[in-house]
Write a structure and sequence with these properties.
97 residues, mainly alpha, 0% strand
Length: 97
């Protein structure tokens, strides 16, 4: 899978995340995979949907400054994993109070 590049002369084979159309393409290519990962990890459909939304919202907000060195899919799955870990950490802290 090609890496996302934010160089001044972007690789034409990778959607330009800085544009609305490029972002839509990335979403179409990867949202289902990120959702499947979240669902398999959490076993909770609502949480999985929320995490996917948060991951893509954060990607859109950071689109002009983010520089991905690896694959887009790896970045998105990693972001989802950290959000799930954070969710469960916060949940566990609340239970212990």
């Amino acid at each position: 899978m090609p890496a996302l590049s934010l160089r001044k002369e972007p690789d034409k084979s990778v959607p330009d995340i800085r544009t609305r159309e490029g972002f839509k393409q990335i979403y179409a290519l990867h949202a289902a995979k990120v959702y499947s990962f979240c669902l398999s990890y959490s076993k909770n459909e609502e949480l999985a949907k929320d995490v996917v939304q948060e991951v893509f919202a954060a990607l859109w907000e950071k689109r002009n400054t983010i520089e991905l060195k690896g694959s887009v899919e790896y970045y998105l799955i990693s972001a989802a994993m950290y959000r799930l870990i954070d969710h469960y950490s916060r949940t566990e802290r609340r239970r212990s109070l």
